[in-house]
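U., I forgot to send this yesterday:
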Amino acid sequence: MESNQVKKTVSLLFGVLAILGLLSFLPAFTIGNWKLRPIHILADIQEDPPSQPTPVVAMPDSLLTPRAVDQPDTCELSIPCIEDYSANRQALAKFFKALRNSRQQPVRIAFFGDSFIEGDILTAPLRDTLQQVFGGRGVGFVPIASEVAQYRTSILHQYNNWETRSIVGKYDDEPVFGTPGFVFTPGTDNWVEYKPGKGSRRFSSMQLFYNCSLEQPVTLAVNDTLHIAEVLTPEEGIQRLRIALPAASSVRMTLPADSAVFYGVSFEEGTGVYVDNFAMRGNSGMGLLRINQSMHRMFNQYRDYKLIILQYGLNVVGENDSTNYEGYARRMVTVIERLQTAFPESSILLVSISDRSSNQEGTFKTIPAIPMMRDAQRHMALKTGIAFWDLYEAMGGENSMVQYATATPTLAAKDYTHLTFRGGRIIAMKLAKALLHDQKRYENNRKPR
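Result:
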């Protein structure tokens, strides 16, 4: 009796092993929305096959220039240096010249990006670091409404009853967007409130950016008690209202819901460096083509940017991407060239795509197309003669996002795409060091030899 039971058990065991062995020869396949991956029952004892080099997608000759292999000056940092692809190695000269006078006048940076910089995750520590070196106090530009306002710590921000339209939305009537890429329309009983965030105690002034066709009154409540009355003037294009705030720990506005649209506010305390965060979820960079050049120029009359930073790519690369980025690269070259025209006194820095991982047969690894997008972005910088910084390499290259997500404490979210505040601080410090290193090189080259 026991002998028969043992035989049945052994037969069942070998039967299961045989079925699993046959299944291991099947490739991955999909049923509906479910992707079934291959079974490898001997994976723990089999030797890994030699890794194959990632195929490199050649970029068209039109995106290449001789400067691609001409980068004098080796960087002594343990992080990637700024790569300068201008004709005379002066890509960031306008920014560096402005920094010399940062104690006498504000030096502003416009940081465009996607959800990777949402919530001021990367830009806040970059701003703090540069302000420690060059002066400045304040977060710079803040939108009227934001879907990540509750996560931001550099400023406390609440609002109610606002319609938001952005350069990634679809509308029957195309809005007139400002440089930040948003336009906000107030509804009945609207309000917006700002309070100083981490590291700041008071506001002393605020700027409101708007456009209206009729003269409109505005009332502000400062510290919940003091009420300030202002007037919006009807003029063509973007207007700016400067408001003095006497030691404000909070400011709350109700704005006219008739014949007016708003673009945002700015908090600055005099001279020094300010970094405006223009994050937009879902933006590949193509959305910038929807901003009229005249609006850029009007906005820049007030902001006078000396550096524009571009960070895109995550919304283009997918797990099953074709890796052909020629069309995207050409359109981004157009985006950069338009910015060069609209902001002639600004330096431009293109920050590459970060690492991003996906579940590949049970293991999280770098999406194969990530390095190819990084290379395509480097060629965009080559084509347009701007500066470039390799964020992918700064993170650590292949599978670095996995290391960030599994670190203790964690440096990235478990979506293997976005950073935590701690991870953002690490990347911001690396970018700041790269910028300061390049500034030192620039200043040393100016000295008579």
